[in-house]
Amino acid sequence: MEEDHGGASRRMIVAVSEADLLKAGDARLLELFRESPPGDIPAGPLEGTAIVRWGGAKVARSLARLVRLAVWRGKVFEQGYVSNRLTTFDILAIVAQVYRGPSLLDDRECIVVDYSKISLAARGIRDEIREVGPGLYLGVVWLFGYRAGWFSLRVPEVGEPRPAGTEKRAG
Fold it and tell me: Is the pLDDT score of 71 beyond 80?
């Protein structure tokens, strides 16, 4: 979606909710990703949701809850790097570099989470995110150059507890 500002065109955020992303089909997720701006590179902890594209919306919600409880809970962004939040204990692991770059999907700018240079466990993975709503990012997962999945990242709401180990440091 484009908005005109006195001759200058810029992308607007296509506001959707986390629930909308879980209900959306693959074609809608592709459309949202293509329409959305990269947004700012996040800072601090973000809540993550795996988006499963088979079995319908009810299965997607159930699997998203299961993945969140047992495997992946989100990411923590800090000065050019990101760590994944794993298990119910919020273990920070699988570090990647973060930078702006062209998307493998449409060659437009996105926020790239690049595991290839510093992660042995996830060397073949590249995540790309764009902001689809205020504080809500849609992510596409690439595995060895093939689109493998979707996820969302959400800035925690005020008053929501911070994950263990991500408290702001004094100084």
Answer: no
